[in-house]
Amino acid sequence: MKIKWDRPTLIKLLTDHGNQEKAPAMAAYMKNHFPFLGIQSPLRADLLKQYFSIHELPEGVQGVWEEVFALLDLTEREFHYAAIALMGKMKLTIEDLDRIQRVIETKSWWDSVDSIAPTILGNVVKKERTGGEEVMKRWAQSENMWVVRASILHQLKYKAETNEALLFDTIERQKESDEFFIQKAIGWSLREYAKTSPNSVRTFVETTDLKPLSRREALKHIK
């Protein structure tokens, strides 16, 4: 029988396994946007698996979201990863998209956004395509670069279920962006979709004035 969710226990578990020798290099890899406890990914995954295996989720949807944002309020990056892992345990619906957006906009960097967009966000939109895709169209026009990146990447794992028109329309909207992370997301999404529909991607790239980085990434594995 699982025991009640307890944030202090989770904080202590992660803190106790921190490694101050590894922390500076991990922070440097993320351009020093965030301090780290120094817990590398495999160990962090094991620790979170251990915690979730013996603890219940917080009570109710509101309770879970309160814990997500409480973890995001902490300083070290590993706690932000824990917040995202907690989100991944929830049965999220289209009604949660506003809060997912808030998470994306909170202490944003590519590591957090890319942990959310193709999986957590993608799964929500895939379950409720019509309403979810309308929200993605709005996100594609956001002034927040990370929300835009999420809208581009949310179909990354859809394969044959990709809404090609939505993908291409979103890229068309953002193709002139000078933001590195937008250009990279465009290339990544096209490269991934090319595994399913290489001819469509090739034609789109040949007929669309993409930035060199996006074009290069999109065609990387197309012969």
Write up this protein.
This protein is mostly helical and 223 residues long. Helices cover 65% and strands 0% of the residues. The chain is built from 13 helices and no strands. The protein has helices at residues 7-16, 23-29, 41-54, 60-72, 77-88, 97-105, 110-127, 129-139, 145-153, 164-174, 180-194, 198-206, 212-218. Helix 7 (110-127) runs antiparallel to helix 8 (129-139), helix 9 packs parallel to helix 11 and helix 11 crosses helix 12 (198-206). The N and C termini lie far apart (54 Å). The mean pLDDT is 97.
Strand content: under 5%
Radius of gyration: 19 Å
**Tally of separate helices:** 13
Straight-line distance between termini: 54 Å
Net shape:
globular
Mean pLDDT: 97
Instruction: List low-pLDDT spans.
Output: none
* SSE class: mainly alpha
Strands, total number? 0
Major sheet description = none
Q: How would you spell out the order of helices and strands?
A: HHHHHHHHHHHHH
The share of residues in helices is: 55-70%
User: Which oligomerization state do the chains in this entry correspond to?
Assistant: single chain
